[in-house]
């Protein structure tokens, strides 16, 4: 026993063979930090666990599935056709456009894709999305989104954190912090990425930043073992692992007693306990063998072109069904919606990969009675310019893009906002990213102004409200904004 006095906790984890030391979120050992100091303002609690928490007012939804379409999907080639682009093809934009890359020409380019109107709402959808066209009456389209930067990483940071630079918690971390989770055997915030690699931004897209590390996104794999390093490599005798954990718990508790308020240690203890509980539940939740062949086919799991994304969407449904609060699904690696030189080829490739899985997710949630309580959000970081780049592509455009919501009290079959005649700028009922985040929070029963965390001498909020002035967009919602909370 005296020898143990010279072994620190990190060394013990690496020597123990528990299987927890390299857990998917074991980076907590080196990266978790809690900046909270002082006493929070009256009525604003500070959390450090995943227990379910009361909302500020009655919630319309209890979970979020965020489908991140990284690369910048082109609004005028998917959801926002413009006849003026056809009428003035090849002519310059009358006012010029904001150039991002030098080889962008100021010549208007009509969409090479055909459009038709679908559903009772009469939504325009291009031929690139034949599956989404079948569910438009279940979707809430926002055509008037705008953001603050034309670079991919800055745009993604903005979409997820309300700031173009890194260092703020993403939406999923804020929501997990504010609400905890309904299932204590699974993380509050799960990330499902392509097993072949990361999208641009990598793990920054699910960072907890200055929130306790417990609230960062936890990567689950959609190929092979769902949670890496969750179980020991070698079989242990019955009860041995529980004994190991109990012993580690005693060491951590003694260490914490000598260092009261050391939040990274508190978060670490919580995560080891969560890892132990996950061993029992995570494998069964992510095991798709019990799904019917019809369900798998609906998600496109029988087709190599759609199988990977469809699998992630099906896993997302199973996770929210099991009580996970926030699930983030990314596309294939890189920035696959980024079509500078070939709209038709690039668009058809990524649309084929994602269209069926996203559509199946909405249909499946609705059929199971889960859509009303689950917000599904489909969005990229910005849109594209109405002018041509390289003759067949489009450059980045922060001034306008389209996203859609489904479920969670968002109005189905709504087409909200407008862009100008060329699709270049949002001009009617403009919606900012902070407004969007404030609206999602509202549907989860959260007043975005009252979700606060002390950092850098002030109390931060999900929408950065003191800077942005964000407020929920009442016209997107099926029920009035609660108590006039805008």
Structure write-up:
The structure is a single chain. Helices cover about 30% and strands about 15% of the residues. The protein is globular. The strands form six sheets. Strands 1, 5, 6, 7, 8, 9, 13, 14 and 17 form a nine-stranded mixed sheet that branches. It has twelve helices and 19 strands. The chain has about 475 residues and is α/β, with parallel strands linked by helices. The protein has a single domain, classed as Alkaline Phosphatase, subunit A. The model is unreliable at about 1-5 and about 10-40 (pLDDT under 50). The chain has helices at about 10-15, 30, 85, 150-160, 170-180, 240-260, 265-285, 295-300, 305-320, 345-365, 435-445, 465-470; strands at about 65-70, 105-110, 115-120, 125, 140-145, 190, 220, 325-330, 375-380, 385, 385-390, 395, 400-405, 415, 420, 425-430, 430, 455, 460.
Supply database-style keywords:
nine-stranded mixed beta sheet; Alkaline Phosphatase, subunit A; alpha/beta; 19 strands
């Amino acid at each position: 026993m005296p020898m143990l006095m010279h072994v620190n906790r990190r060394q013990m984890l690496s020597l123990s063979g528990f299987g927890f030391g390299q857990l998917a979120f074991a980076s907590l050992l080196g990266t978790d930090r809690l900046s909270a100091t002082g006493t929070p303002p009256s009525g604003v609690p500070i959390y450090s666990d995943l227990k379910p928490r009361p909302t500020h007012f009655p919630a319309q939804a209890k979970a979020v599935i965020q489908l991140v379409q990284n690369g910048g999907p082109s609004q005028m080639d998917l959801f926002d056709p413009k006849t003026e682009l056809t009428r003035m093809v090849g002519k310059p934009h009358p006012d010029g456009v904001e150039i991002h890359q030098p080889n962008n020409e100021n010549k208007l380019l009509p969409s090479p894709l055909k459009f038709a109107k679908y559903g009772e709402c009469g939504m325009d959808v291009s031929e690139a999305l034949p599956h989404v066209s079948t569910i438009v009456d279940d979707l809430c389209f926002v055509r008037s989104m705008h953001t603050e930067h034309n670079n991919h990483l800055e745009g993604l940071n903005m979409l997820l954190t309300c700031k173009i630079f890194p260092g703020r918690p993403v939406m999923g971390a804020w929501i997990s912090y504010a609400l905890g989770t309904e299932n204590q055997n699974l993380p509050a915030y799960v990330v499902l990425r392509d097993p072949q690699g990361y999208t641009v931004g990598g793990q920054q897209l699910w960072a907890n930043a200055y929130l306790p590390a417990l609230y960062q996104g936890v990567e689950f794999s959609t190929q092979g073992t769902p949670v890496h390093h969750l179980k020991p490599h070698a079989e242990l005798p019955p009860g041995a692992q529980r004994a190991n954990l109990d012993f580690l718990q005693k060491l951590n508790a003694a260490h914490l007693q000598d260092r009261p308020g050391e939040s990274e240690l508190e978060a670490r203890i919580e995560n080891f306990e969560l890892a132990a509980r996950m061993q029992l539940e995570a494998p069964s939740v992510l095991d798709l063998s019990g799904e019917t062949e019809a369900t798998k086919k609906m998600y496109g799991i029988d087709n190599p072109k759609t199988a990977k994304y469809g699998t992630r969407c099906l896993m997302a449904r199973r996770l929210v069904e099991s009580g996970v609060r926030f699930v983030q699904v990314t596309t294939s690696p890189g920035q696959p919606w980024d079509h500078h030189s070939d709209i038709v080829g690039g668009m058809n490739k990524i649309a084929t990969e994602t269209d069926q899985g996203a559509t199946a997710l909405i249909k499946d949630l609705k059929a199971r009675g889960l859509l009303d309580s689950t917000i599904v959000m489909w969005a990229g970081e910005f849109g594209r310019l109405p002018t041509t780049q390289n003759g067949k592509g489009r450059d980045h455009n922060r001034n306008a893009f389209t996203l859609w919501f489904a479920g969670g009290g968002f109005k189905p079959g709504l087409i909200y906002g407008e862009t100008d005649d060329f699709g270049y700028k949002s001009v009617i009922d403009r919606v900012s990213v902070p407004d969007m985040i404030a609206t999602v929070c509202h549907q989860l029963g959260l007043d975005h102004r009252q979700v606060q965390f002390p950092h850098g001498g002030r109390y931060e909020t999900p929408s950065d409200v003191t800077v942005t002035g964000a407020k929920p967009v009442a016209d997107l919602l099926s029920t009035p904004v609660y108590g006039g909370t805008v």
